[in-house]
Design brief:
With about 500 residues, the protein is mainly beta. A hairpin with a 4-residue loop joins strand 8 and strand 9. It has a domain of about 300 residues: Methylamine Dehydrogenase, Chain H. The termini are far apart. The protein is built from 5 helices and 28 strands. A 4-stranded antiparallel sheet has the order 1-28-27-26, with no helix packed on it. The chain has a 4-stranded antiparallel sheet with strand order 2-3-4-5, with no helix packed on it. It is about 10% helix and about 35% strand. The N terminus is likely disordered.
């Protein structure tokens, strides 16, 4: 029976037999030594190498700029660099503007954070979590996924970042009064606003009283020596006038009469004063602090000698148990009213400390502001002596006053000097500037006083202008202590002789 052509392949002659006997992997080639030998390598050099190490390194030694030439092979793929590509995260780490930046910059930065938080909440991820990952997360049960999906439509997730709303204050003053002869001296306190809405201001050697309710102005007295400080008593019955000769005059406002003159030991000007019931605490240019009891003949009951520079700031706490003093020696002293040794002495400021403000709601919270070389507002816990926080205002601070608003809660307003003579409002909780009035005066603001209702700020500067700005809308009338709440009754009981 004849065999099929598929049973056996046809025989080939030995002349046409190939040299590759195995048709599998190309590495299993057998070469006939009679036909191909190592002595003839040109027959194997079919594919040339695309990287000649000896040639490349030789050219590099002779010409270091060889790498920039066109002799190097070109790559056919683009691999992005890790440093130039995004990491695929929604990050909350942003460079926030400094506290003294304009409110618009703070609002823009906070809006970006709020937007990122909103996008993360909408995508069901957390801020800082990777969006694209190399490996998927382990699957969850369908029941949990349905609950999460349903909860997205039924409940609204509260963002951890609240949007910052604009805080609007008018840059136009409510009223402007001329103050000719006002002394442009940063270390003096020549303006004071009483709880009965009377504002006292010193112009040259004269003291004037402006009735903020009626708008009338009257001159109280004209002194022989220059006036260096003014301060109303707690019930606004008396006005103490400190002079350059180191004496203090006590005036009765109802009768417009001088009750007495108290002289200090050094005879040096009194730049700062503060009342606490029947005590008048006065700070001199030489650094001494005198406690004067206006009820007795020998009025000096104590002399405090902790400062070495002029005392330019004095403030009692509302309960009268503590008071703070600021000096030109860049220090702050927190005193117990019953002791002649300070409880705490702080040297954090790098300039004179004139601005002092006790929080009306938290007795142990004190704010202090430094001069042109410091520009810092420090917040202190006067019970422990610890510094709670700091705000860099970028401007000289001449006065500080607490307030509040519906948008930011507790706020503090600072009047500044160099460089832009501005009035700045800061949020105590956020530690940022929320409102400002730039160039409120043509020259630096020497001092500022808040109205009895806590809404109007009176500022006086070297431009001899007395301006009134409405800075707080959330007016709050604080309750006075028992001795101050009696008002005029206290003045009838107190006998000055």
């Amino acid at each position: 029976m004849s065999s099929s052509v598929f049973d056996s392949p046809p025989r080939r002659s030995s002349k046409n037999r190939t040299n590759l006997q195995y048709l599998g992997s190309p590495t299993k080639e057998k070469v006939n030594s009679s036909t191909l030998s190592l002595a003839s390598p040109t027959k194997l050099n079919v594919v040339h190498s695309d990287w000649d190490n000896s040639t490349i390194y030789g050219n590099l030694k002779r010409n270091p700029s060889f790498l920039s030439s066109n002799q190097l092979p070109k790559t056919d793929r683009f691999i992005p660099s890790r440093h130039s590509s995004s990491n695929g995260r929604v990050s909350s780490e942003e460079h926030l503007p400094p506290p003294n930046a304009s409110p618009s910059e703070h609002i823009k930065a906070q809006s970006q954070l709020f937007y990122k938080q909103s996008v993360a909440d909408a995508c069901g991820i957390e801020v800082g979590q990777r969006i694209l990952q190399y490996q998927p997360l382990p699957p969850q049960s369908k029941h949990c996924v349905q609950l999460n999906q349903n909860s997205q439509f039924k409940t609204k997730t509260k963002s951890t970042i609240d949007p910052i709303r604009s805080r609007k204050i008018s840059s136009n003053p409510e009223r402007v009064l001329d103050a000719p002869g006002f002394i442009d001296d940063f270390y003096l306190n020549l303006i004071s606003w009483s709880c009965d809405n009377y504002l006292a201001i010193a112009l040259d050697n004269s003291c004037y009283i402006w009735n903020a309710s009626s708008g009338s102005v009257s001159m109280l007295t004209e002194c022989e020596f220059g006036i260096s400080s003014l301060r109303w008593s707690d019930d606004s019955s008396y006005l103490s006038i400190g002079k350059d000769d180191g004496s203090i005059e006590i005036w009765d406002i109802d009768s417009s009469s001088k009750l007495r003159t108290m002289k200090t030991q050094g005879g040096i000007r009194i730049g700062a004063q503060c009342w606490s019931n029947h005590l008048v605490t006065a700070g001199s240019k030489s650094g001494e602090i005198y406690n004067n009891d206006v009820r007795i003949k020998n009025h000096i009951t104590g002399v405090l000698n902790n400062h070495v520079g002029e005392v330019c700031g004095l403030e009692y706490r509302r309960d009268g148990l503590q008071f703070a003093s600021g000096s030109n020696d860049n220090t702050i002293c927190i005193w117990d009213s019953r002791s002649s040794i300070p409880q705490f002495t702080k040297t954090t400021h790098t300039a004179a400390v004139k601005a002092l403000a006790w929080n009306p709601d938290i007795n142990s919270l004190l704010a202090t502001g430094g001069g042109s070389s410091d520009k810092q507002i420090h917040f202190w816990n006067t019970t422990t002596g610890a510094r709670i926080n700091t705000i860099d205002t970028g401007s000289q601070i001449s006065s500080l006053h607490w307030g509040s608003s519906t948008s930011f809660g507790k706020e503090i307003v600072a009047t500044g000097g160099y460089p832009n003579n501005c009035i700045s409002v800061y949020s105590y909780d956020h530690k940022i500037k929320v409102a400002e009035i730039e160039n409120a005066h043509d020259s630096r603001i020497i001092s500022g006083q808040i109205s009895p209702d806590g809404s109007i700020l009176a500022t006086v500067g070297g431009d001899e202008n007395l301006k009134f700005y409405k800075v707080f809308n959330n007016v709050k009338k604080h309750e006075h202590s028992s001795s101050i709440a009696n008002g005029k009754q206290m003045s009838k009981i107190m006998t000055i002789r």
